Structures are given as structure tokens and as C-alpha cells.
Amino acid sequence: MSEVQAAVRGHGATDDIPASLLAPPARPWWWWLTSDRAARYTARLAFLVVWQWAGSTFQDIPAPLGTLEFLREEFARGEVFRNVGISLFRAVIGLSLVLVLGIAIGIAMARWWRVRFFLTDLILVGITLPAFIWALLVVMWWGFSNIGPITVCVVSATPQLVVNTFQGATATPGKLLAMSDAYRVGTRRQFRWLVIPSMMEYIAAGFRSAVLAGWGAVLLVEWFGNDKGVGFRAHYWYDAHSFEGMMGWGLVMMVIILSFDRIVMDRVVRHFRSWRIGGQQWSR
Amino acid sequence: MATTEKTLEELEQDAIDSLASSGRRTRSKFLYSSLGALSFLAVWTYFSTVLEPYVLPSPLAVGTRMWELIVSGDVFINFGSSFLKTMAGWALALALGIPIGLLMGRYRYARAFFHDFVYLFANVPLLVYAVIAIIVFGISPWGPAFVVMLEAFTGIAINVAAGVESIDRGLLAMSRSFRRSSGRTARSIVIPSVVPFLFASGRVSFANSWKLAALAETFGGYLGIGFQLEKAFQTFSVVTLLAWMFFFVIFVIMVERLLIAPAERKVFAWRDPAGAREQMA
Questions:
Q1: For the purposes of burial, counting CB atoms within 10 Å of the CB of A64, is it exposed (0-12), middle (13-18) or buried (19 or more)?
Q2: CB-based contact (8 Å) between A238 and chain B?
Q3: What is the pLDDT of residues A89-138, one digit of tens each?
């Protein structure tokens, strides 16, 4: 409205235009029912209702209320915090290794062509291999231990970070670099202000998928052979034929990874991408 | 909104492509990549001589086992079974994802409504899917197909929505003013705009669907690659497990090269959806 009015005022002809044209169009009373936010909450509600319906109709499917009740009991037994803590510990160690190894290998592959050709096929095969095959292997090799989950986390998540880091290191902003050369910007400043920011964007996206893969890998190893952790606890209830137990722990796995992805990784990725979209960084 | 943004899977695929296509096919490239494979084999052989053979069998033993599995025909039966399950899951995912994608591309309300579902189903850990498969279907071939559907429909829906958004509004208006029937408009404008996007999503999530189907078979199957891996695990046979692991790699690469890459060239011959997306942004 203000824009229109300002434009019209600029011409000094406000009086000729009826007020009804300048006012924003009237909304029907139900407008908030069709807003994006209302749609999202409707979807969530519908999901819960359908799940509850399925749970109470089919015997084998656990209903949300029963699952919540199970989780309350599991909290009271003190199992949730203990096992979640152990799984998180393994995932954090594994993913720290992934971060170091992935970035180092990715940059080395972009920097030296011999390293690139040497490793390309191995990395592509590593991406193709599913984590659960590694999980079965390390359970046979090491049995119940911390080494198994951490190894599979590293082996299955590193290739994903490597390919992204490689892409980031090779996709440097060529035009901006050429311009910096033309204006005699020093190598150090080019690196600090162009090469690193453009790479971080790819590394952040790669680490996001590495976190998803690494968490899944830790869970798988714990499921197939471990005596502690979230995956172990889910398997424990699988052996006890408790569908509510499996569903409850499945919910725990999902809540942990999805909230981390939404709250932390999404912001990290946005942060490192903001310079490309907004350009605020350049105006400073 | 978010439909034109690339999904995590698509970013990953871009990165893989940029690595796979980097550098020309020269003799030195061949030399170094075979050097990489050879040194991997050398490290493996060394450790297999140090460790007990039941812990780490030699490459030769695994090769022999693979040959036995080929001769007995087990490989073809089990891969056929897994392939059928994955394809059944894909057919279900298309049936679910295309209508949702069309709605998401056309109506703002539908886009907001399905937004959370698409995010949720795309990021659930594969283990949770496998658990859902045994809860709902028990030991049955429908469990893997069902969870492949849940996992794959998200990418299909997002890409169909992006395809619908990419349709040239001018062409639609023109076909209206020349009084073309809506069936013909759909056939000659809507479908050609959407199909390349659909294909892109298929290519990207193929590998993941395949992994998920095999994992779900490990939990509740009586045939298929996942079941064979589980059997090797239960009988503590590292040789058999490694043999199936290499079959898995070979099969995924073969399907990628022989099935997907030629189809991709055909579908993308006239249009590049990545380019279309950049134009929209």
C-alpha cells in the first residue's frame, strides 16, 4: 500500500483515486486456514491421527499413545539417557575423524592429479557400498566394542565428504579470482576472501550428508552386534518381540538426527552459503 | 519456496559426477587408477597373510567363492529378487510421488502441507525404515518394497513439483488461446517439462533405494542379496560376505552404466533440468 501511495503522492494526484483501490484487498475470514503455517500444522495433526487410527485398527502396528507410554517407562528405567549418551559419544568421535580425513583427502585430490586418479575409483566404490555390509563385517571382526561403530562411521561417511570437498576445491569462483588478479589482490587475501568461503559452502553441505550417514552407520553396527547404545536397545526390544519398543527407539533415533539436522546443520549450511546469496559480506 | 532448492541427495550426486568426470581419459589416468586398485589389493593380501584366514581371507579365496556363486546361479536368483523388490517399490513411489508432486507444484497450500512429510521421509535413518518394514509386513517381499516407496517418493515429489514450476506459462496461455484440449496440452507441454526432472530424481535416489531394499531384506527376507549377506553373517563366513559385497558393487555400477546412463542421454537429449533450474533462480 505504502509504495502505491508514495508513488501516487509523488505525482500529487491522490484525490483522484478512490480509497478502495489503495487499500489492500480484503481477506476472507478463513484466510488463516489456508496459510502456510496452518497447512503445516494440519499436516502434522493428520499424520498423528492416521497413525493412531492404523495403530488401533491393525494389531501389529504400535499406536503413538502406546509408543509414548513405552518411552515414558524407558525414561523411568534410565535407559534412554545412558544409551543415547553412548551412541552420541561414538558418533561424535567418528564424525570428527570424518571431518579431518574427508577435508584432507578432498583437498589433496583437487591439488594433485596423481592423488586424484589414484583415489577416484576407491572413493566411488566406497560411496556405493552400503553401511550395513561394513557393519556386518566389523561385528565379525571386533565384536562388542567402540571400535566397530566408529570404524563404520568413518568408512561410510568419509567418501561423501571427500566428493563434496573435491567439488568445492575445484569449483572456485573463476571470474572473481580473475578480477582479483586484475586488481592485484594478494594471494593471501584471495585465499581468505574467495577460495575458503566458496569451499566452505560445499564442505558444509557434504558434512551435512556425512552426519546423516555417520549416525545411521553407528546405529546399524549397534543393532547387529553391541551391548550398549541406541541401536542395541532397539534390537533388545526386537528380540523381545515388542513392536512398541522398536517403534519407540526408532522415534528416538529420528528425533535426535532430525533435530540436529534442523537446528544445527541447516544453520551452518545457510551461514556458509549466505555470502553468495546476500552479498552482505562484500559490502562491508 | 524450497522446491527449487536442490536436495541433499542431488548435491551429493553433483559432487560424485564432478569427481567421476574430472580429467580426460588418458593413459596416465588409467595408470594411476589401476595403481590405486592394485595397492588396495596389495594391502589386503598382506593383511590376509598376517591374520587368520577366517578373519580376513585372501583376495584369491574371495574370487574363488564369487566364481562358485556365479556357477551355481545363486547370484542371478538373488539379485533378480532384490531388483524386483526395488522396482516394485519404485513403481509404488511413482504412483504416490507424482500426484503429490503435481499438487505441490500447482498449489501453495499443498506445498506447505507436504513440506514436512517430504523432509521427514527423506532423512529417516535407513535402520528405522528396515524396522518399520518388519513391524508392518514381517518376513515378506512387500516389506522392502514398501519402505523403498516411503524413501523414494520424496525425491520424486520434489522433482515433479520443480518440473511443474518450470513449465513455461507463456506456452500454457498460448495453447489456451488456440483452444487446444487439456489432454493435448498435458501431453505436449506438461509431460515434457516434468519428465526430465523425474528422471533426475530417479537417477539420484536409485543407489539409496537399492541399499535400503538390501537392508530390509537382511531383517525380514528369505531371498535376495540382503538375505544372503545375513546368512553369511550368521554362519560367520567372512569369505561369503566379502564375495556378496563385491557382487553388490559390481551390480550397482553395471546398472548405473548399462541402464541409467543410456536412458539419461536419451531423456536429456533435448533439455537440461539443471539449466532450467538456474534460469528460474
A1: middle
A2: yes
A3: 999 999 999 999 999 999 999 888 888 889 988 998 898 899 999 999 99
In this prediction the ipTM stands at: 0.84
Q: Which of A136, A170, A254 sits opposite B128 (nearest CB)?
A: A254
Tens-binned pLDDT, residue by residue, of chain B (281 aa): 344 467 777 788 888 877 877 666 678 888 888 898 899 999 999 999 888 888 899 999 999 999 999 999 889 999 999 999 999 999 999 999 999 999 998 888 898 899 888 888 888 888 889 888 888 888 888 889 999 999 899 889 988 998 888 888 888 888 888 888 888 888 888 888 888 888 877 777 787 888 899 999 988 778 889 999 999 998 989 999 999 999 998 988 888 788 877 777 777 665 554 544 444 43
Say yes or no for a CB contact (<8 Å) between A261 and B123: yes
Of residues B31, B127, B230, nearest to A231 (C-beta): B127
Contact A113, B23 (CB under 8 A): yes
Question: Are the Cβ atoms of B135 and A36 closer than 8 angstroms?
Answer: no
3-state class percentages of chain B: helix first, strand second, coil last, to nearest 5: 85, 0, 15
The answer to whether A202 contacts B15, with C-beta atoms less than 8 Å apart, is yes
User: Closest-CA residue in chain A for B244?
Assistant: A133
pTM of the model: 0.83
Exposed (0-12), middle (13-18) or buried (19+): which is A173, by Cβ within 10 Å? middle
Give the closest-approach CA distance of A39 to chain B in angstroms: 5
Whether A223 contacts chain B with CB within 8 A: yes
d(CA B161, CA B106): 8
Candidates B39, B127, B135; nearest CB to A61:
B135
- Residue pair A131/A152 in contact (Cβ under 8 Å)? The answer is yes
Record: contact B127-A216, CB cut-off 8 A: yes
> B135: which chain A residues are within 8 Å (Cβ-Cβ)?
60-62, 243, 246-247
Phi, psi of B166 (to 5 degrees): -85, -5
H or E element: which one contains A226? none
